[in-house]
Design brief:
mainly alpha, 8 helices
Length: 181
């Protein structure tokens, strides 16, 4: 008779890692609390600017909070401000173009991404500004539609050539107004 000894090895379970706290701005976006999210992301952007100023010329420019602020503004219907914030974010941090937003992750559903996209599209068609068409392009990137995004960036470039007005010229709506979409 053969006797087998069973050797039990003591394997320590992997330590539990605490999940990071969810970003309150993203939580607000997913809930559709766009004005609240816009405020949170604007504060994060201001904090980032403060860090950059403190670091001086060695600072890494990061406009992700400003871009999220722009997305929240769009969700809230503040299309003029949204387009301007998107334009500023991408102008100051060109690397954002290579890091598209994850619309469904940020807004919680494909239907909400479509809803926000429709707001941007209506605004762009009505105003025809380069900032508005670029905003549509950024949102097409967020939907994973790269070729369509490039088409809208081309429209933005054409709109810039067609009406090279002064910075701050935004077409039919003035800053501080809500679009009627």
């Amino acid at each position: 008779m053969i006797v087998h000894e069973t050797v039990e090895s003591e394997v320590e379970p992997a330590p539990m890692r605490a999940e990071p706290e969810p970003d309150p701005g993203v939580v607000a976006l997913r809930r559709g609390a766009y004005e609240q999210a816009a405020g949170i992301f604007l504060r994060e952007h201001a904090d980032q600017l403060g860090r950059e100023k403190a670091e001086g010329s060695t600072a890494v420019v990061d406009r992700r909070p400003l871009r999220l602020h722009a997305l929240a503004l769009l969700g809230a219907g503040a299309c003029v401000e949204s387009a301007e914030a998107f334009a500023r974010a991408y102008a100051e941090d060109p690397t954002l173009r290579f890091e598209p937003l994850d619309g469904q992750e940020l807004l919680g559903s494909a239907s909400e991404v479509r809803s926000v996209m429709l707001k941007a599209m209506r605004f762009a068609k009505r105003t025809g500004t380069p900032e508005a068409w670029s905003m549509v392009g950024y949102l097409k990137q967020a939907q994973g539609k790269s070729q369509q995004a490039e088409d809208f960036f081309a429209r933005a470039a054409a709109a810039q050539v067609a009406s090279p007005g002064p910075a701050g010229s935004r077409g039919a709506l003035e800053p501080g107004t809500r679009s009627a979409i």
